[in-house]
Amino acid sequence: MSSPPPALDPNFCCSRQDALRGLLEERKLDAAFITNRHYIHALTGYWHEQTLTLAAVLVAPNGKTILVA
Question: Which residues in the chain come in under a pLDDT of 70?
Answer without folding.
Answer: 1-2
